[in-house]
TrEMBL record:
Keyword Mitochondrion carried by entry: no
InterPro entries for the chain: SurE, SurE-like_Pase/nucleotidase, SurE-like_sf
Catalytic activity: a ribonucleoside 5'-phosphate + H2O = a ribonucleoside + phosphate
Cofactor notes: Binds 1 divalent metal cation per subunit.
Family label: Belongs to the SurE nucleotidase family.
Lineage start: Archaea, Methanobacteriati, Methanobacteriota, Stenosarchaea group, Halobacteria
Positions contributing to a divalent metal cation binding: 11-12, 42, 90
Gene symbol of the encoding locus: surE
Requisite cofactors: a divalent metal cation
EC number: 3.1.3.5
GO MF, any single term: metal ion binding
Region (Disordered): 237-260
Compartment(s): Cytoplasm
Protein name per its UniProtKB record: 5'-nucleotidase SurE
Length: 260
């Protein structure tokens, strides 16, 4: 069997440090083609363009569009023989159920699921605190825990049957510490702590989760993605992409009264 063919994308842009760190390690074990946004497209969710310019890049292709654009363009036109889509490595964690739909990184993996192509989203948790957040994780070595986990999963997850039950994996890793991080299989936390403050003509929206993670002020139990990260572990959440539906007798009864 030949080397795994990987489509690598992200939402931070093809020139980001985390993207190159992940490309370099995956390229040692697989045939990797980059199909990634030319510029930063963070937090655009599954937004999609009708048309996007494509430029050849030393790693593959730079797309003037969204992460979802990149997945569709890659799987349909640029590298259709892909075995695995990997999105990342994102600078900043994608943790919690409420984040999944916002993240461009996760959305690129979700888009692959509709092509029946296994996928994973890979992100690095960059804790707040002293110093500006954007000044951290500027060296490829800062992504080591994330890239180690990504390589391991890229080499073993398909053959292990992981994608017979999951459509994609949401992988979040801590920054390197004194000891190598363990891997924990998790579910997205359901804790939601967004606040809004209205002052004059402005509404300020604040996500308090990140401060609470820094202060270890989370009620999240063991087995959730945020708890694993706070405990210094690599979080791997096996997820499915299509929305699920359930039979609701109360909704059936309500529909029967429509226009009566």
């Amino acid at each position: 069997m030949g080397r795994t063919r990987i489509l690598l994308t992200n939402d931070d842009g093809i020139e980001s440090v985390g993207f190159r760190a992940l490309y370099d390690v995956l390229d040692e074990v697989a045939d990797v083609t980059a199909v990634a946004p030319a510029d930063d497209k963070s937090a655009v969710g599954r937004a999609m363009s009708h048309e996007a310019a494509v430029e050849e890049h030393e790693l593959g292709y730079a797309i003037h569009g969204t992460p979802a654009d990149c997945t569709v363009a890659g799987l349909e036109a640029l590298c259709p023989d892909t075995d695995l889509v990997v999105a990342g490595c994102n600078k900043g964690a994608n943790l919690g159920a409420y984040v999944l739909g916002r993240s461009g990184t996760v959305s690129a993996a979700v888009e692959a699921a509709f092509f029946d192509v296994p996928a994973m989203a890979v992100s690095l948790y960059v804790p707040g605190g002293t110093g500006e957040w954007h000044e951290k994780a500027t060296d490829p070595g800062d992504y080591r825990e994330a890239t180690d986990a990504a390589v391991f999963l890229a080499e073993h997850a398909v053959d292990a049957g992981v994608f017979e039950q999951a459509d994609y994996l949401n992988v979040n890793a801590p920054m390197p510490g004194d000891d190598p991080a363990e891997m924990a299989i998790t579910a997205p936390s359901t804790l939601y702590d967004m606040t809004a403050e209205h002052e004059n003509a402005t509404v300020r929206l604040v996500d308090r989760i990140w401060d609470r993670m820094r202060d270890d002020d989370l009620p999240d139990p063991e087995g959730t993605d945020r708890r694993a990260i706070v405990d210094g572990k690599v979080s791997v959440s096996p997820l499915t992409a299509p929305h699920t539906t359930e039979h609701h007798e109360s909704l059936d009864a309500l529909a029967e009264t429509y226009r009566t």
